[in-house]
Structure formats: C-alpha cells, structure tokens
Automatic annotation (TrEMBL):
Residues 113-440 form the GH18 domain. The keyword Nuclease does not apply. GO terms for cellular component: endomembrane system; extracellular region; lysosome. This is Chitinase domain-containing protein 1. The chain crosses the membrane at residues 42-59. Residues 25-35 have a biased composition (Polar residues). GO terms for biological process: carbohydrate metabolic process. It comes from Solanum commersonii (Commerson's wild potato).
Length: 440
C-alpha cells in the first residue's frame, strides 16, 4: 500500500511541474530513481528511529511508575503476601518452614473490621498469642464463666479461671476489649418465666463485670435453649428474646469507670442453620432485627460443618455465604445488619478417618505440623469449599483426610466478611499457626 501511494504522489508531481523542474527530476532517469529511493529510505529510517526512541521513553516512564507503585503496594500488604505464601498451590514444606515467620511490625492491622478472638483455659498458648498479637484483635473473649442453677439459686461460676495479670498485660499492649464468655446453663423454663430469676441473672453478670473491670461479656444461650426444645414455642421464644434485650439494655446503662464514655457491651453467640432453609429453632433474621439495638454484636459459629460421621470441610465458603444471606438478606439493609456480625473462622482442623470405620476429630497446630513432618503429604485444593486438605495412611494402613486452615482459605473468608461489612470471630487463637495473624 505504501508503494501505491508513492506512485500516486510521483505522477501528480510530474504533471504539474515546469519544464525546468521536469529536467531536474526525470523519473525515467536511473540516477533520479535511485536518488529518490534513497531519500525515502532515509526518511523512513529517521521516522522509525524517532518512533522507537519516543516509545522507549514512554515505556521506561510507565515501567518505572508501575514498579515504584508495586513496591510501595507490596510493602503495605501483609508479610505472607510479600513472601508469596497466600496461594492455592501451597506445599507442606512451605507450611513447616514459614509458619513461625511473622512480620516485625506485628501491630499493623490489615483487616479493618472487628476481630473477636476466643481463648480457652485448657489451651494456655492462646493467652500468650493474645498478648503477642493484641493489636490485631478488637475483642478478646476468654472462656471462663457458666451461669448455673444450684437448687433454687443462680450461681455464676468461673472467677477462678480469670487472670487479672493477663488482663493488665493486654490493656498495656493494646485497646482490645475483654469480654469473657458466659454460658447460660440455668434451666430455661425457670429462668425465663420467673422475673426475679431473670433480674438475678442480669445482676450477677453486671456485678462480675464491675468487680473484674471487664468491658462486657459474650453470652451463649441459644444452643442450650434449642437443646431444651423451648424455642418451638412462640411464647417461650419471645421470653428468650426479651431476656437478651433486658440484659443488653441493663449493660448499656452501666458506664465503665476506666472510660466514662463507654458502656458494658454484649455480644451474643448464634449458631448457623444446617440446611438451606431456616428451621423453627434456628436463629433467624427476625431474631436479629429484634435484638439489633440491644446487642453490640453477634458471634456467628460458621464452623464445625463436618463431623466424624460426616467427614468433609470445616467451614465451606458457600455455606458461610448462604448463612449470611439467610440472616441479613440482600439490599441496603444487609450492610447495616452485616456490620454487627462476627463471621466465625476456625483456627483448628479435623483429622477424619476415611476407611476402616468412621472416626477422628479436631487437631490443633502442633498436631497438624507433626502430621506434615511425618507424612509429607500433597496438598489438594477443594474449590467448592475453598479449603485445602490432604490424605495419608496411618501405621494400620487406615486412610485419613485432614482439613486444616491455610493462608489461602483464611484470606478468602476475610474477603467474604469484608464484602458484608462484617467482622470475624476466631475459635480459637491458641489452635492456629502464628503466621495466620499476618493477614489480620
């Protein structure tokens, strides 16, 4: 095409030129043709040289900018991302070699929404982990208390578990709220129907918070009420909701001496539905709406999806997502409701027996690492649940399947929580690997 255009220009020029110019430029002359051809080659060479130089300058400028911004961005990303560890194709060797390597800046938070972390007295590692990573956590819930019947009386058991020195250390290191868990084990038919017992329960909880200088409590009662079979009855269900409201309002009326601007807080534990549709006893969206103003947060137990009798993933991502859909719905209201949810995330795993009879059960960090060292397994990614697992055979040649959190599975659950405006609740921090905290 370029040659065709050149012929056109030459023909037009020769027809309109003077006789003198025609003599000077004779297209029939071999020398003239050679001269013209050289001139065009020279122009084309200059054009492409300039084009190349300009393109190179633009490319260099863009490359420099891209590289600079990428480096800055990577520095801001969690340390485990910088090391390329958050991925589907993880290996057992990476976990063994890297799980203790955490960022020097352990105070920097990457997950901006609330983080509720449970700690159990039977796993003392959780206390140390809480102190080390206290800046990553907004709510700490040591599992300390039960409210029980003793004859005709109500008694709050558990102060012997409380560790004032540990609480003091936590408050020196960060701003995490201390909200011990209280399990309501009192007989619900007595507690909920009798006004004096309800008031006694509330007073016991508030007095303990005042004397021990807690910031509030995490209350667990719904699962107990389900076990007693009272939530199928609409009157009893209303009494149950009224009790939680009454407790929340009473706690909100108490101003903390450490900070007069803050009231005692109430976080309420709720279980996830086990089917695609809510059952009569399930905690549902109407219950969430009813308690919204009286409760500061809802600890949603989206873990323990599988069991030795039904082996599989610990907390399939699709199940977590469908549970949130059932609870908070869709549209403009969902964000508002979602902001009070702590999406449950497990830091433990399960080692299930897959042959020779069902069995197995939970495992924690050191047990998991021991299995990796012993069996050197190949990790497999289960896309539907967004979890890693591996298979191994024990000394009796019985096959096992191990599901345990990885950086990739945790990262995807954090992103899911973010999309709802929700926080997370971790059961429990002493059972996980240290580098899990890098992504928080």
């Amino acid at each position: 095409m370029a040659a065709k255009k050149r012929s056109s220009r030459i023909s037009s020029s020769s027809s309109s030129s003077s006789s003198h110019r025609s003599e000077a430029f004779n297209p029939s002359s071999p020398d003239s043709v050679k001269s013209q051809t050289n001139r065009h080659r020279w122009l084309i060479t200059i054009f492409f040289t300039l084009f190349f130089i300009i393109s190179l300058l633009i490319y260099c400028q863009r490359y420099y900018y891209y590289t600079a911004t990428t480096v800055v961005f990577d520095v801001e990303k969690p340390y485990v991302y910088q090391r390329g560890l958050v991925k589907v194709d993880s290996t057992y060797r990476e976990v063994i070699d890297e799980n203790l390597n955490v960022s020097e800046n352990i105070s920097q938070r990457h997950f901006g929404n609330p983080v509720l972390a449970y700690i159990t007295p039977w796993n003392s590692k959780g206390y140390d982990v809480a102190k080390k990573f206290s800046s990553k956590i907004t709510h700490l819930s040591p599992v300390w208390y039960e409210l029980k019947n003793e004859g005709s009386k109500l008694v709050l058991h558990g102060r012997h578990n409380a560790d004032r020195g540990w609480i003091s250390d936590i408050r020196m290191k960060g701003n995490a709220l201390i909200l011990p868990r209280v399990v309501l084990e009192a007989i619900p038919l007595d507690l909920l129907k009798k006004k004096k017992l309800r008031e006694k329960a509330i007073n016991l909880i508030i007095m303990e918070c005042k004397e021990m200088e807690y910031d509030g409590i995490v209350l667990e009662s719904w699962s107990r009420w389900v076990a007693y079979g009272i939530l199928h009855n609409s009157d009893m269900r209303n009494l149950a909701l009224q009790f939680i409201k009454q407790l929340g309002e009473a706690m909100h009326s108490v101003h903390l001496e450490r900070n007069g601007k803050t009231n005692l807080q109430l976080v309420y534990v709720i279980g996830p539905p086990r089917t695609d549709k809510l059952q009569e006893h399930d905690f549902g969206p109407e219950d969430l709406q009813a308690l919204y103003d009286a409760v500061d947060g809802f600890s949603l137990m989206t873990y323990d999806h599988s069991s030795p009798y039904n082996p599989g993933p610990n907390a399939p991502l699709k199940w977590i997502r469908s549970t949130l859909h059932l609870l908070v719905g869709a549209g403009s209201k969902s964000r508002r409701l979602g902001e009070k949810i702590f999406v449950g995330i497990n830091f433990y795993g399960n080692d299930f027996v897959m042959s020779g009879g069902l069995g197995g059960g939970p495992i924690i960090a050191h047990e998991y690492l021991s299995l990796l060292e012993q069996h050197k397994p190949l990790f497999q990614w289960e896309g539907n649940s967004a979890e890693h697992f591996f298979l191994y055979s024990d000394n009796q040649h019985v096959q096992h399947a191990v599901f345990y959190p990885t950086l990739m599975s945790l990262a995807m659950r954090l992103e899911e929580a973010r999309s709802w405006g929700a926080g997370i609740s971790i059961w429990e921090i002493g059972q996980g690997l240290e580098y899990f905290f890098d992504i928080l």
